Amino acid sequence: MNEIETMESDESKALKITKSIWFHVLSVPFIFAFFDIFEHGLPQLTDLNIFPEGFGIILTFIGVVSVCIFLRNPIKQLAKPPQTNTIANPENSSEESLLKYKKTPKELEDASKMTESDAFYFALGEWRNNCIICLAILQGCALFNILFVFTLGGNVINFACAGVLVAFIVLLFPSKYLWESYRNERVPQLLSDGWQSSQSPGTDA
Asked: Most exposed among 27, 32, 156, 191, judged by the fewest C-beta atoms under 10 Å?
């Protein structure tokens, strides 16, 4: 299996895992509501009071806005350079390691550059993490609203908020199109930036 086939296989596995997480996140509010109905019965959904049920509206607003911010400005991690040996303790280094110090500065610079494969896996990890964060925020807010429906007299407002949040989860299905859109934008950026080390010069990477 060549490098491209390996990347495609890993991409397929990552998408499958992310879709499984999405399905779990989507199913939890329905399972939670089912058990509440089983224990307390169907809510009447006649209460339209804003207080204290309005807290569910605040949660919904915070959740949706937070997710929109994540979608517009996804969290991007700092790309660290590959580990390299230093000559701080040459007596503890093997002969093969010491030969690395004879490389020219250009050779060392080329060795530290991010490859397309590195950028691909780095972007895939970022995209998956951002998906999970967004889904977790929406799920948490939806569960709170469902809880309010059954504990605060069946408020219609909380029921509507929970529906909006669940619909948002559905819209965030981790499709291959969404991943490819992120990949096509992020990978060239990583390659142009190269490795960015957060460590000061002269220290072990």
From this structure: 27
Residues in the chain: 205
113, amino acid identity: K
In single-letter form, the type of residue at position 136 comes to A
Q: How many CB atoms lie within 10 A of CB 59?
A: 21
Decide which of 158 and 172 is more confident. 172
Q: State the amino acid at position 145 in one-letter form.
A: N
Q: What is the DSSP letter of 81?
A: P
Q: Three-state SS for 155? A: strand
**Neighbouring-strand partners of residue 155:** 47
> Alpha-carbon torsion 192, 198, 204, 205, what sign?
negative
Question: How far, rounded to the nearest angstrom, does the alpha carbon of residue 62 sit from its chain's CA centroid?
Answer: 18
Residue 47: strand, helix, or coil? strand
